[in-house]
Design a protein that fits this description.
single chain, 614 residues, alpha+beta, Four Helix Bundle (Hemerythrin (Met), subunit A), Beta-Lactamase, 4 domains, five-stranded antiparallel β-sheet, five-stranded mixed β-sheet, 12 strands, 62% helix, elongated
Length: 614
């Protein structure tokens, strides 16, 4: 039997209860209807007959009285018309005897009518008023009174019977109401109990299957759903048991391998000396290694608030790297040691440099992010020592280099005495090298001051058009000599930007100089400024030789020069430019294609200078 048939069978008791109530109601209402009909059909007919007999009898008697007073023959003719209806009603009453005592009263009425009829015939045969008066007084009047009395008795019997039957009908109605309420309650309770019992029996396998599913969800793979029968639930239970058995076999075959793989991966990240934090796709902490627990005091327990336990500086770095990787921007690579975050430890402050990598799922999508905080404390100290050494050496170079430049300049100008043409060429070459060496020393000092944070920016509103023109002006002569066109473009509505004008001009001038140097004759260098969301974007684009992809990542490193590039500075210009942009709170980047050209760009936060905005 299918589940549908079982559920339909569970509704049968309710249907039977409804049928029983219907049968009882029809039978009871039928009896009540018959009782009412009996009252109307029998007793009411007798009452109506008596009323008509009484009416006709009085008409006949009145006509007789008129005849006594010699009113004419017409009164007797009128009385004769009432005789036949009276006798018809009397005959009908004789055939409608229904109540005790009614037969005797009807018989008495018949006899009284017979005497009255006989007296009436004698009355009609009399030819004088005196004779008629004598017959009426002697015979008709007593018979008339007897008939009237009999009619009254029959009326009272039927009227009493109607009242009694009405009372009995009311009592029967109350009994019917009681019976109907009892039948409805009994049928409803019985039907509900039977239907509930059948439904419970039909759905008991569902409860068994539900408990088995709950236990399976709790990890009890040995649980089975024992359901007998051939219906849909039984088939579902068999399928569930097959699934549970397959899962149990799978766990038995792969659980050890999974546990071993998990233990191996945990041991691998625990062996790393640097803190490692693994985030899920929703941003929660999934796993940490022992170094993260010790250094960051971070735990996977209560992952929703795990980052709240670490220092605010570390939390900010972790959230930034996590947002970068999970936002689909690829791996997170630090710009340099300046991205390292300081962490207090018992043995002293430690500097950790963050790196982030996406964790990919089987389908290729990003399912998490791993963050490695590399301990660069010693390297940062070495870098600070190197910067200090470079700054010290550069500072010590300035005085003798200034003296050397002055001496060469004086000699080249012939102040000590006349010089030959060949000597002048050598002095001019030496002076150019001194100028280049002086530029390198100045760059080293600027870079040292920028990295140490000793340079304070004088930020104020600056005209973007003026900055672009000032950056192009010093290089127009060199551009004309090389046959390179210089131009600038400014987006409509962009008038001012808040920045340090000297530093901003230094960045643009450095980019324009590099673009002119690496653009061949007939090329073009364009300096642009435009609005980009909440920032202002500056670009210097050229149509030069371009930069190979393998060199683009290192182009902003200190002292890095693209192999094969023409001689120039010491490779510090782009590094200084990036430091200045970052000091303004902006970003700097490059897009280049070998043989097509390069575009160096940087953005500054928008703080004013757009028409129509306050």
């Amino acid at each position: 039997m299918s589940l549908r048939d079982k559920l339909l069978l569970a509704q049968v008791p309710l249907a039977l209860a409804l049928l029983l109530v219907g049968v009882v109601a029809v039978g009871t209402l039928g009896r009540v209807g018959h009782a009412g009909r009996d009252i109307l059909a029998d007793n009411y007919r007798s009452v109506r007959s008596m009323q008509r007999i009484n009416e006709n009898l009085e008409r006949v008697n009145s006509s007789a009285l008129f005849a006594i007073s010699d009113e004419g023959q017409w009164s007797l003719e009128l009385a004769n018309t009432r005789l036949h209806p009276l006798e018809a009603e009397l005959k009908a009453q004789e055939g409608n005897i229904t109540e005790p005592g009614e037969a005797e009263a009807t018989l008495r009425l018949s006899r009284a009518w017979a005497r009255y009829r006989s007296a009436y015939e004698a009355f009609s045969a009399a030819d004088t008023p005196g004779a008629r008066r004598s017959v009426y007084l002697d015979e008709m009047a007593p018979a008339f009174q007897d008939a009237k009395f009999s009619i009254q008795i029959v009326l009272e019997i039927n009227q009493d019977a109607m009242v009694n039957k009405s009372d009995a009908l009311q009592r029967q109605s109350r009994r019917v109401n009681t019976l109907m309420v009892t039948a409805v309650v009994v049928a409803l309770v019985g039907g509900l109990l039977a239907s509930s019992s059948l439904t419970q029996r039909a759905l008991r396998p569902v409860s068994v299957l539900s408990q088995a599913v709950r236990r399976l969800g709790q990890g009890d793979l040995a649980t089975r759903a024992v359901v007998q029968g051939q219906d849909e639930i039984a088939q579902l239970a068999r399928d569930f048991n097959a699934m549970a058995e397959a899962l149990q076999r799978y766990r038995q075959s792969s659980l050890g391998e999974l546990l071993q793989a998990q233990a191996s991966s945990q041991a691998a990240i625990d062996s790393l000396p640097d803190p490692v934090v693994v985030f899920g796709v929703e941003g929660g902490v999934l796993n940490v290694n022992r170094a993260a627990e010790e250094v960051l005091r971070l735990s996977v327990e209560g992952s929703g608030g795990a980052l709240g336990q670490v220092a605010p500086e570390v939390r900010e770095v972790l959230e930034r790297v996590r947002a970068h990787v999970l936002g689909g921007k690829g791996p997170y690579l630090p710009r340099g040691y300046e991205d390292a975050v300081r962490v207090e430890a018992q043995e002293g402050d430690r500097w950790l440099l963050p790196r982030g990598s996406p964790v990919y799922g089987e389908e290729g999508g990003v399912v998490g992010a791993s963050v490695l905080l590399q301990d660069v404390t010693r390297l940062r100290r070495f870098d600070e020592l190197k910067n200090d050494l470079v700054a010290t050496v550069a500072h010590e170079f300035r005085t003798p280099l200034t003296s050397l430049r002055m001496a060469i300049h004086l000699c080249a100008e012939g102040v000590p005495g006349p010089i030959t043409e060949k000597q002048a060429d050598l002095l001019y070459a030496a002076r150019e090298d001194c100028e280049r060496l002086q530029g390198i020393v100045d760059d080293l000092l600027d870079l040292s001051r920028l990295q140490s944070g000793r340079v304070e920016l004088e930020v104020r509103p600056v005209s973007t058009e003026a900055v672009l023109e000032a950056a192009l002006a010093p290089h127009r002569v060199a551009a004309d000599e090389r046959g390179v066109r210089l131009s600038m473009e400014q987006a409509p509505g962009l008038e001012r930007v808040e920045a340090d004008p000297e530093r901003l001009q230094l960045v643009l001038s450095n980019l324009v100089a590099n673009a002119v140097r690496h653009t061949s004759r007939g090329g073009e260098v364009v300096a642009r400024a435009r609005q980009e969301g909440e920032r202002v974007r500056f670009e210097v684009a050229d149509t030069g030789e371009g930069i190979a992809p393998e060199h683009q990542q290192r182009i902003f490193e200190k002292f890095y020069r693209v192999p094969g590039a023409s001689t120039g500075g010491a490779g510090l210009g782009l590094s200084i430019a990036q430091e200045i942009v970052q000091a303004h709170g902006g970003e700097m980047g490059l897009s280049s294609q070998p043989g097509v050209g390069s575009t160096f760009w940087f953005t500054l936060p928008r703080t004013g200078g757009v028409e129509g905005e306050g």
